């Protein structure tokens, strides 16, 4: 799963797949392909939801050269 | 030019005046002195507002009156917020008051806030149409608040519970004191320089009313409006609404609530995923069952036809056998046994052929689906046919006055050509 596919993308795609399959006017090959994709994405979404951890970072502006630094927030 | 012939009724005059006065008038603050203050047993108040040059009669309904912080007194100098209204029965104008503030209560600070508000209104920054929707699944959120404050802790706690996948980028800023406006503005401007964020929460925990001054600061409000992503304000006050709240896309009462507004709830999403899993299974089962049924009917017909021919051959052999004298039986036995062996060999071959046919049929069934006139009808087209079942394709084929049948996706409709 490419990193740039977000959990939100995953969920939106799943919604689309469910809608398409419900419409029931698909050739059987397409229906099967969608079904398999849906099951795969369900699994991925669950895993990502379970594994997710909140990341908290602090943004600091270096007054010397006016650049931004992002570092984990202590505590 | 008006003439007695088309004289208006008095009611029409009153109604027209009412429309002209009331339509398009926004609530307006008016400053004046209270005169003739009367409270009626009904709970409504009547009084006049006047200055050196003019006077206006005012009404204030009971519901407004009960919210007054200070009782109204004769001669009191006040700000009154209201709308002009025409009382049709007497064609009299009233200023219908929605809020009254004694000028003595409205300190310099509050007047300053009001002036700032008016400037923000003038620039369209409080327009509800400006409000941006919040993203459904944010990945990264900027949090502008005091690093040491309770607000950031609350937001982290709620985020970890609701939607742990999110990344919070905290930009520290003083939220009270003299430095606060400048620091808040700088922090809000920083949001644009961060790695892409989906939204921004700006706020603080609760505080005294004076401490909220930074969130009424014009520069801070304009920085919120200029933020490239939707902003949720969380100034931590249920009662006092700051200008920052008015400019923000969404106002939350507290930082925890801001995080709740900002993030979906993991447990709700998990419930949704489970629902989708069931729906996927059900849809697929339905699709497969329909195809299998159709295929089943076709293969049955195919199989029966082949078996029927085999049996017919067998019957012919038996008939010949019976009609032959015994001496010839030996000559017949050979072919008969061959026939039986052939039938035995044929069984697996038939299976293979049937499997091949099944696959071919499946492809054809799908293609047929796409081509079927019924599928076209399902998209909303209709097929006209005359009494003999001939399809009517052109205008010339329709006989005026003659009945015809309109075939639609689920049946026939009787129709008639008008002309």
Question: TL;DR of this structure?
Answer:
Chain A is α+β, with helices and mostly antiparallel strands. Chain A contains 2 helices and 2 strands; from the N terminus they run ααββ. Chain B has 11 helices and 13 strands.
Structure description:
In chain A, helix 1 (7-23) packs antiparallel against helix 2. Chain A has helices at 7-23, 28-51, and strands spanning 55-62, 67-72. Chain A is an alpha+beta fold and 75 residues long. In chain A, 55% of the residues lie in helices and 19% in strands. Chain A has a two-stranded antiparallel ribbon. Chain A is elongated and about 65 Å long. Helix content of chain B is 44%, strand content 20%. A five-stranded mixed barrel of chain B has the order 1-2-3-5-4. A five-stranded parallel beta sheet of chain B has the order 7-6-8-9-10, sandwiched between helices. In chain B, a hairpin with a 4-residue loop joins strand 4 and strand 5 (92-102). Chain B has eleven helices and 13 strands. With 419 residues, chain B is α/β, with parallel strands linked by helices. The model of chain B has no long low-confidence stretch (mean pLDDT 84). The A-B interface holds A 6-8, 11-12, 14-15, 17-18, 21-22, 24, 26-29, 31-32, 35, 38-39, 42, 45-46, 48-49, 52-61, 68, 70, 73 and B 135-139, 142, 147, 152, 156, 159-160, 163-172, 186, 190, 193-195, 266, 269-270, 272-273, 276-277, 279-280, 283-284, 286-288, 291, 362, 366, 369-370.
């Amino acid at each position: 799963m490419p990193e740039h596919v977000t959990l939100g993308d995953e969920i939106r795609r799943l919604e689309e797949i469910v809608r398409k399959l419900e419409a029931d006017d698909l050739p059987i090959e397409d229906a099967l392909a969608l079904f398999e994709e849906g099951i795969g994405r369900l699994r991925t979404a669950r895993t990502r939801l379970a594994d997710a951890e909140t990341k908290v970072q602090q943004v600091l502006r270096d007054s010397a050269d006016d650049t931004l630094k992002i570092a984990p927030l202590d505590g | 030019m008006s003439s007695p012939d088309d004289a208006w009724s008095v009611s029409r005059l009153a109604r027209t005046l009412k429309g002209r006065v009331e339509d398009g008038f926004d609530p307006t603050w008016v400053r004046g002195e209270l005169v003739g203050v009367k409270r009626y047993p009904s709970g409504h108040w009547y009084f006049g507002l006047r200055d050196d040059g003019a006077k206006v009669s005012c009404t204030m309904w009971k519901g407004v009156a009960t919210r007054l912080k200070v009782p109204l007194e004769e001669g009191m100098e006040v700000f009154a917020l209201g709308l002009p209204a025409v009382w049709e029965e007497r064609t009299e104008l009233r200023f219908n008051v929605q809020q009254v503030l004694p000028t003595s209560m409205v300190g310099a600070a509050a007047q300053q806030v009001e002036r700032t508000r008016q400037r923000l209104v003038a620039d369209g920054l409080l327009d509800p149409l400006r409000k941006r929707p919040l993203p459904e699944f944010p990945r990264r959120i900027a949090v502008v608040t005091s690093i040491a404050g309770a607000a950031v802790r609350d937001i982290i706690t709620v985020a970890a519970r609701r939607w742990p996948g999110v990344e919070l980028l905290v930009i520290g800023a003083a939220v009270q004191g003299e430095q606060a406006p400048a620091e808040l503005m700088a922090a809000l401007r920083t949001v644009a320089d961060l790695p892409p964020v989906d939204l921004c929460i700006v706020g603080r925990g609760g505080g005294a009313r004076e401490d909220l001054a930074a969130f009424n600061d014009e520069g801070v409000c304009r920085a919120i409006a200029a933020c490239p992503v939707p902003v949720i304000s969380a100034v931590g006050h249920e009662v006092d609404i700051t200008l920052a709240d008015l400019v923000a896309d969404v106002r939350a009462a507290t930082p925890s609530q801001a995080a709740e507004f900002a993030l979906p709830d993991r447990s709700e999403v998990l419930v949704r995923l489970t629902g989708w899993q069931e729906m996927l299974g059900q849809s697929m089962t339905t699709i497969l069952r329909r195809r299998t049924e159709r295929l089943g009917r076709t293969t049955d017909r195919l199989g029966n036809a082949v078996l029927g021919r085999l049996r017919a051959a067998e019957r012919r052999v038996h008939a010949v056998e019976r009609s032959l004298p015994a001496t010839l039986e030996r000559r017949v036995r050979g072919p008969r046994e061959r026939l039986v062996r052939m039938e035995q060999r044929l069984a697996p071959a038939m299976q293979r052929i049937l499997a091949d046919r099944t696959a071919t049929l499946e492809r054809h069934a799908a293609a047929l689906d796409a081509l079927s006139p019924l599928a076209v009808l399902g998209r909303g087209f209709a097929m006209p046919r005359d009494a003999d079942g001939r399809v009517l394709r052109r205008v010339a084929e329709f006989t005026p006055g003659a009945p015809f049948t309109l075939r639609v996706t689920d049946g026939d409709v009787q129709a008639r050509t008008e002309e």
